[in-house]
Amino acid sequence: MIGTIRINFIVGLVAFFFNFIFSLGHNVLVTVFIRSIIAFILFFAFSYLIRFIWFMIVNESEKKKSDSEIDRGIKGTSIDYVTPNDDVKMGSSEDEFVPLLTSVKKPNPSMEFDPSEIAKAIRNVFNDK
Hints:
Elements: H1 5-23, H2 29-72, H3 115-126
Helix pairs in contact: 1-2
C-alpha cells in the first residue's frame, strides 16, 4: 500500500481533536471523549480504505505502462545466457537419490492367495441374502 500507518494515525488524531474541540461545549466530557475515540477509529479505518483505493489506481496505471512497454518491444529483446563452468562437476557420489517413502511395506511373497478364493470372498461381500 502507498504510505505508512503514520498517515492513518495522523488522520485519526486530526478527527479526534476536531471532534473533541467542537463538541466540548455542547456535551459532557465523557461523551465527548467516547465520541472522539469513535471518530479516531472510524477515520483510522477510512484512511486504510482510501490508501487501498489509491494503491489500486496507481498499480493499475503502472501495469498499463509496463504493458505498453512490452508492446513497444523494449522488454524481452535481449537474452543473457549463462552456462556453468566446465570445471564444476554436476553430480557426486554424496548426492545419491534417496526415496521419500522408505517405510512403505512391501508385499510378503509367502502370503499368496488362490484367485478363486479371492473371487468367492468378493462374491460373499456383495451378495446380501
